[in-house]
Each structure stands twice: as structure tokens, then as C-alpha cells.
Amino acid sequence: MNGAGLPLRSMLFIPGDSEKKIAKAPECGADAVIFDLEDAVAPANKPAARALVAETLRATPRGQRPMQYWVRVNPLDSGLTRDDLDAVMACAPDGIVQPKIDGPDCVRQLSAMLDEAEQTHGLESGSTAIVPVATETATAPFHLGEFADADLSRLVGLTWGAEDLATALGATGNRLPNGEWHETFRLARSLTLLAAHASGVQAIETLHADFRDSEGLLAHSRQARAEGFTGRLAIHPAQVGPINEAFTPSVEEVDHARKVMAAFATNPGAGTVGMDGKMLDIPHKKQAERLIALAEAYGV
């Protein structure tokens, strides 16, 4: 969620060692930026990246930032997670993206590390959120259903990753010639969506690798929203606009939702109503209520 309690529609990755790209972050229009200390940074550059990200976080305190500032740390088994947190937690990132987890226990371990860091640096307990990339190992998809009962108070979303999963499987590709995901990756994506909703957190779609394909990005993002995803990762500033558009209710959707609400209002107490030759029931009403509330919050 963003500072206003709204779903994060767009989360833009920015290499943690790129001073030029980090300087442009405030104007990117994303709901959140993720300063990356993991895959986007070569091992030799990680110390410099930590220092640069910490400096960026310190320059704009939490609550004064133009969007949320998150950090992707290195995975637990790298031996670098503690170094990452030691560098950035004093500067109060809004959240941590956790890569290459095997399941909820990995998130629980990170949460304990954040408990300690928040206490050390005088931060509000539990104020640093976590979004794990929940499908990057061969083990991870088998544990997605466990998130629903894991009681992870810092967890605000689940996302998935196709590239690292392909590496973990020794796959030579993750898409069919028509651009659709191979079966294994479709399964991982669907399980992530279900696990997020079962846990009551955001379902965040993975990135669209071709940053020049704005039409494809918009179409695929609209499809993801129709399926129940609430936001998407981005790897280039040009992707932020289409993603925000796709995950914001349109005027036409709002008009339809208001029409649904009006139909129920004229039939108080009714469980079903007719509208435009179709029968609508209570789930349609609830969907309309949620859409209108979200649209009003985004100023549609």
C-alpha cells in the first residue's frame, strides 16, 4: 500500500549503483521505486550501491518522499542481507523487496532482522513492509498456500518472477512463440495470485521485459488486473504510465459501477436485480462498491 493506503499500482526497479537513474526517481510517476541492491548491481559495486541508496533515503525522510522508497536486498543465502540492512535501515526505507525465498519462513527470518533494525534505529516497530518475490526457486511454488496462515504482519504483497525461476529450473525459455507463458510459469503466476488474495495482500504482476512494447504492456496489464492483480513491477520509467493507466479504474468502469449501485438502490433488500438484460447479484454489488471506492481514491 502507498502512503494513502491505496494499492501500489507501479513499482519501478532502479539500479542501486546508478546515480543518474536514482536522481530521476522523484519524477518517474511510480507509486513506489525499488532501489535494487541485488541482481542489477555487480558484486564489486555492492558496497558503493549501499552507500548511494542510504544517502538517497536519508536525503528525503519517510513521509516527505514523492512516492514510496523501497529497497531490494540480496537473498538470505547470499550472506549479504545483513550488510544491506545495516546500510539502509537507519534511513527508514518504506519497504523491503525480498528475492529468492523458499516460503514464509524466509519472510519470517527477514522480519526478525527488521525487528532488530527498527529497534536499533528508533523506528516505529513493524513500520517497514515486505514484498517477497515468491516464485524464484523450485521449492517456492509448493509453499505459496502457506502464506494465508503465516501471520506475517509486515507482508503487504506477493509478486512472482519468471527469469530466476527459469534459471532455477535450467529452462531455456519461459514463453511460447506467441508470447504466452509456458505451463510451469503460468502455474507459478496463478498460485501467486491465489496466495496473495488468500493472505489479504496485494497481488503484484511480474515485469514486462520489453520496455519498448508499451502497447503489449498496457494490454497484458489490463488482463492482469481483470484476473485480480492490483499492480505491476516495472524496469523502465517508460513503463510507469501504461501500468498506472491499466491498474486505475476507467471512467467507463466507474459509470458502469454506479449504474449497478443505482439498480440495487432502487430495489432495497433485493439479492438480485436486472440491468441491461442481465441478472446481477450481491457479488456484483460488492465489486461495484470496491471499484468506486478505488476510483474516488485515485481521483477518477
From TrEMBL:
Q: Does the keyword Metal-binding apply?
A: yes
Keyword list, A-Z: Lyase, Magnesium, Metal-binding
Required co-factor(s) are: Mg(2+)
What InterPro entries does this protein map onto? Aldolase/citrate-lyase_domain, Citrate_lyase_beta/mcl1/mcl2, Pyrv/PenolPyrv_kinase-like_dom, Pyrv_kinase-like_dom_sf
What start and end residues bound the annotated signal peptide?
Answer: none
A Pfam family that the UniProt record links to this protein: HpcH_HpaI
Sites where the protein binds substrate? R72, E136
Q: Which GO terms describe its molecular function?
A: lyase activity; magnesium ion binding
Answer yes or no on keyword Aminoacyl-tRNA synthetase: no
SUPFAM superfamilies the record matches: Phosphoenolpyruvate/pyruvate domain (SSF51621)
Q: Which residues form a coiled coil?
A: none
All residue ranges annotated as the HpcH/HpaI aldolase/citrate lyase domain in the record: 9-237
Q: Determine the domain of life of the protein's source.
A: Bacteria
In this chain, Mg(2+) is annotated as bound at E136, D164
Per its UniProt record, what PANTHER family does this chain match? Answer: HPCH_HPAI ALDOLASE_CITRATE LYASE DOMAIN-CONTAINING PROTEIN, LYASE BETA SUBUNIT, PUTATIVE (AFU_ORTHOLOGUE AFUA_4G13030)-RELATED
Family, as annotated: Belongs to the HpcH/HpaI aldolase family.
Q: State what protein this is by name.
A: CoA ester lyase
